[in-house]
Amino acid sequence: MLSKVKASALPSTYTKDMKSHILRTIASFCRNEAVLCIAFICALVSSFFVPAGHNFASSVDLRVIVLLFCLMGATAGLQNAGVLSRSAHCLLSRVSGFRQLSFLLVALPFFAAMVVTNDVALLAFVPFAILTLSITDKKRHLPRIVVLQAVAANIGGMVTPVGNPQNLFIYTTFQTPFLQFFLALLPFALATLFVLAVVCLTFPRENVHVSVSFGSEPIRRSRALLHSALFLLCLAAAVRILPYSVLFPVTLLALLLFDRGIYRKIDYGLLATFLCFFVFSGNMSSIPFVQTTLGSAMNAAPFAVALAASQVISNVPAAVLLSEFTSNWPALLLGVDLGGLGTPIASLASLIAMRLYLHTPETRLSTFLKEFAVANAAFLALLCALYLAFKAFYPM
C-alpha cells in the first residue's frame, strides 16, 4: 500500500518541479533579454491595430540583419583570436603613471568601438580594466573608469557605420555617403575624446607598475587572418561594394569550415530584437494616428524627438521606429547616437558595462549609478550644446 502511495505521489512532485524549473527559465530569459521581450510585446500588440492587408514581412530590412550577423561573427572571431586582448596588453606594458593608465583604459574602447562595435569593445575592455585596477591596487577608481569606458564606447562607436547597430541601420536605410556620415559625427567624437583626456587628468598623479597576464598569449594568426578577411568583406558590403546576398553564404561557409564555435558567440537576441522592432516600426507607421503624431513631431524637431525616445526605449529601437517618419538622417543619426548617453537603458552598451561591473566582488550599484548620472549628464549637455552650435551654421 505504501509503495502505491509513493508511486502516485511521484508524478505530482515531478510536475511541480518541472513547472518551477520552467518558470525560473522564463524569468531568467526575461531578465537577460529584457529588450527583446519588450520588442516582441510591442510587435505583437501593435499588430492588432494595423489596417487590414498590412504586409508584415515588408517591414523587415534583411540587409541590416545579414550585415549584423556577419559583423558579429567576424568581431567575435577577432576577439577569440586574441587580437584585442593582445593589443591592450602590449599598450599597458608601456604605462608608468596612473593618469596614463586611466586614459589608456578609457581610450581602448573608444577606438575599438569604431571597428568592432561598442558592445564588443566593452565586453573586451571592461574586464581588462577590472583586472588591471585590481592588481595595481586602484580598485577604488573602478566605478568612474567603467562609466568613462561606457561613454567612450558609445561616442567612439558613433563615428563609423559599423560602430554600433543604429549607425549600420541608418547608414544602409538612407544610403548615406560615407564621407558625409563620417564628417557629421567626427566633431562630437573629437570633443568627447578631449574631455575624456581632461577628466583622466583629475585622477591622482601616482606611479603604477602593470603586469597583467591576461592578453599575454600570442595571437592565433590563422583565426585572426580568417576573421580579418571576413570583417573586410563586411565593410565592403556595408559600403555597397559587395552584395549582402554574397556576403551571407561566404560567411556561413567560412565559419562552418574553419571556426564553427563562433556560431555560439553571435548575439541572436540582438538579431531577434531587430526583427521585432522592424515589425513594430512597420506596424506603427501604418497606423494613421501615429503617422500624423510622429510625422509632425519629427518634422518639427527630429533631433530632440530621437534624443528623448532613446532615453525611454533605447537608441537602437528609436532609430528603427523614427526612420519611418523623417528623411533628415543627420538629425536622426545624431539624436540616437547622442541619445545613447543619459539613462542606463538609453544604450545597450551601457547596460553591458553596468552588468560587468556588478559581477565584480565588492561593488555597489548605488556608487556606479551616481558616477553614471554625473558623467552622462555632463557629456550629454556638452554634446547637445555642440550640436546646437553646429545647427546655427549648418541647419540639420
TrEMBL record:
Pfam families: CitMHS. InterPro entries: Cit_transptr-like_dom. The chain crosses the membrane at residues 34-52, 64-83, 103-130, 181-204, 224-257, 269-289, 301-322, 329-352, 372-390. Residues 38-322 form the Citrate transporter-like domain. The keyword Nucleotidyltransferase does not apply. GO terms for biological process: transmembrane transport. Coiled coil: none annotated. One of its GO terms (cellular component) is plasma membrane. Its main location: membrane. Keywords: Cell membrane, Membrane, Transmembrane, Transmembrane helix, Transport. It is a multi-pass membrane protein. It is found in: Cell membrane. This is Citrate transporter-like domain-containing protein. It comes from Slackia piriformis YIT 12062.
